[in-house]
Amino acid sequence: MPWQELTVRIPREQLETVEALLLAAGAVSVTYRDAEDQPVLEPAPGETPIWDQVLVTGLFEAEADLDTLPSLVRSQLPALPDNAFSIVTVEDRDWERAWMDDFEPLRFGERLWICPSWHEPPEAGAVNILLDPGLAFGTGTHPTTALCLEWLDAHPPAGLEVIDYGSGSGILAVAALKLGARRVAAVDIDPQALTATRDNAAKNGVEDERLTVGYPDELDAHPVDLVMANILSGPLVELAPRLAGYVRPGGAIVLSGILRNQAETVREAYGAWFEMAPAVFRGDWTRLAGVRH
Q1: What is the spatial distance between Cα 257 and Cα 230, in angstroms, rounded to a whole number?
Q2: Can you tell me the distance from the alpha carbon of 79 to that of 91, in angstroms, rounded to the nearest whole number?
Q3: Are the beta carbons of 82 and 70 closer than 8 angstroms?
């Protein structure tokens, strides 16, 4: 059976109104998308960030009469222009299968792969990490995560102690363990992220005595060989003395979650403790790495 989709572009403050109107008109589901390619970064616990401009799509049965719906929405939000609306017909499909098909194995560097659990790893002899898309931040698709994974592939932490500060999905912690790390502490402020880290570690066979998962205030603060922090530039600057204190002399730090125009500020915050390598950019995003004095 075909379906109809009505999509309307709105500012975020109108989201609740439009969603309520679409559901009242018979929408069987309502979804949101970014209208302007605006990044939404790792939220604090309890936050539900949304973009400034949003595409809101209501899915309706084929026989629904949508011709008058734009007028109904504009009666509540008269500032919306006529061209804010679009209506299309979509063919029925196996939506779960279509969603799964959107996620393919991803390669990082020479031998590190991130594979959804329903895919056969492309290279059986590579370092393959099973990781399904989920709610916690970090599946390898975002440039900040990719930059960190590529660094790990080029600098495998075999035999080293590692801290993954802001673990999100646990992807960096799991990658470090799969690449031979002796011990990894994964920390995050979000309980959902801690659960995701444990689940993904178990899925990859590394939920053992080498991995500890907890909140920052539970971290054993003795200096380690490598600290990775893929969070945000503001917290990175604020946390610079603490993160530097976690790294032994001669150890390394890897920082990401940094926009290109924020890179120099973050570099300066860590320059007192680290010899910083040149920044590595991917699009608007930056990775910084350094060695502890």
Answers
A1: 5
A2: 32
A3: yes
* Higher-confidence position of 107 and 46: 107
Do 167 and 190 form a contact (C-beta atoms < 8 A)?
Answer: no
User: Which residue has 């005595």 as its token pair?
Assistant: 209
Does residue 135 register a pLDDT over 60? no
Look up residue 75 and give its two tokens: 């009666």
Q: Which of 243, 249, 283, 245 is nearest to 263 (CA)?
A: 283
Which domains are present in the chain?
3-92 (3.30.70.120), 136-292 (3.40.50.150)
Write phi, then psi, for 107 (nearest 5 degrees): -105, 140
Instruction: Write out pLDDT tens, residues 181-201.
Output: 999 999 999 898 899 899 999
pTM: 0.74
Nearest 10 degrees: Cα torsion 198, 204, 208, 210: -90
Q: How does DSSP classify residue 22? A: H
**Spatial separation of the C-alpha atoms in residues 285 and 293, rounded to whole Å:** 26
Report the interhelical angle of 69-76 vs 15-24 (nearest 10°). 140
User: 175 near 154, Cβ under 8 Å?
Assistant: no
Alpha-carbon gap, residue 185 to 236, rounded angstroms: 18
The rounded Cα 34 to chain-centroid distance in angstroms is: 15
- pLDDT-based confidence at residue 291 (cuts at 50, 70, 90): very high
